[in-house]
Automatic annotation (TrEMBL):
It comes from Rhizobium oryzicola. Keywords: ATP-binding, Cell membrane, Kinase, Membrane, Nucleotide-binding, Phosphoprotein, Transferase, Transmembrane, Transmembrane helix. GO terms for molecular function: kinase activity. Its EC number is 2.7.13.3. This is histidine kinase. PROSITE patterns: HIS_KIN (PS50109). InterPro entries: 2C_sensor_his_kinase (IPR050980), HATPase_C_sf (IPR036890), HATPase_dom (IPR003594), His_kinase_dom (IPR005467), HisK_dim/P_dom (IPR003661), HisK_dim/P_sf (IPR036097), RegB (IPR047770), Sig_transdc_His_kin-like_C (IPR004358). It comes from the Bacteria. It catalyses: ATP + protein L-histidine = ADP + protein N-phospho-L-histidine. It is found in: Cell membrane. Residues 221-432 form the Histidine kinase domain. It is a multi-pass membrane protein.
Amino acid sequence: MTKTSSASLRDTQFGRSSRRMRLQTLVRLRWLAVAGQTTTVAVVALVLQFPLPLLPAALLVSALATVNLTLAIRFPSTHRLEPGASLALLAFDLLQMLGLLFLTGGLANPFAPLLCVPVIISFASQPLRHSLVLLGFAVTCASLLAFSPYAVPWRLGEQLVVHPVLQLGTWCAIVSMMSFAAFYAYRVSHEATLLADALAATELVLEREKHLSQLDGLAAAAAHELGTPLATISVVAKEMERELSGDERFREDVALLRSQSERCRDILRRLTSLSADNEEHMRRLPFSSLIEEVIAPQRQFGIELVLVEKGDRGREPVGNRNAGILYGLGNLVENAVDFAQSQVVLTTNHDAERVTITIEDDGEGYPADVLSHIGEPYMTTRGRENETAGGLGLGLFIAKTLLERSGATLVFENRDGGEHGARVRVSWPRSVMEMGPRAT
């Protein structure tokens, strides 16, 4: 893997569209809110027969239903909302709920914690800065409920009085629940998004490698398809050359046409034989050749690459060429080169049981808090301040995933407690390497 391909992978924006909520999802949630509010108002006013400002409450519920119906009619079900539009709709939901709660007792109303719902939805699906704005607005709404002059609907002739201290406790409970639930929803959603992005990046890498490996087959197929019309052209050129050999006006042109058709046939013949001639060479790869192919792109960046071979080349394993292994090892070597001071050492070993590659650099090593989370897609790599990967650790996650899918075991550690750099050890059962890793 080259520096250029790694940079292009880091520049790819996978998760931007995942932070755009589908309008149909929000519409369905709001219909659920309309149904719940309608049922609650009807039960309180008609079944329990508690005094309730029925007309204002009905108008507020109707306003939510009207806006929801307008959205459903105006936009297709597949429409995705921009973060600003989602923020506006969720803020409207908060205002509508604030109005209902304000008219029915404020913080004394047992349904007051429902103010948390739009905030949780926002933190689970929207960018953090928009969600923080909504959180601040929701806290303001909860504070305004403390000043409601209306009593909680209760039996005729009785008034339910809630002590101010209890109202303060309710406010604290709502704000703390809102904050905790929002943080939890954001972390779960964020980590799931990063994991999905990392898996999508892995699929892109594999598709690219497979595409490159199939070019020789496509060339052979194209040559086969072009062979028949070109043979016809060649036959016609020979006939024309024989018929016009005595005509000075066309003899040179016909001879040129025939020679060029023969040249095209030679080119197509070479393309046709390309896959067959090189198939075994491309499909089977000795262990030493695999290592050289991995480290060759990294020799141009001013870091000394030292290869130490402890096994006998005459007995080295020969396995199937695997794009996942090449990419995964290439990413590990590139990471070591990025953080090394002057030298990266690759030590290879193989025996009758296992094949092992150890990659060591003389950099600063892994921080203790990073070492325990190596390979997670939402992890920053070694704490570098100018890290261009955006702190996602996607490259390392992809490398670890591809190598583990090939049957490898990876161990990340520091050399001498981190004072002399980092070490990554990758090992396979020899039988897996020789018969070829699982297809990726």
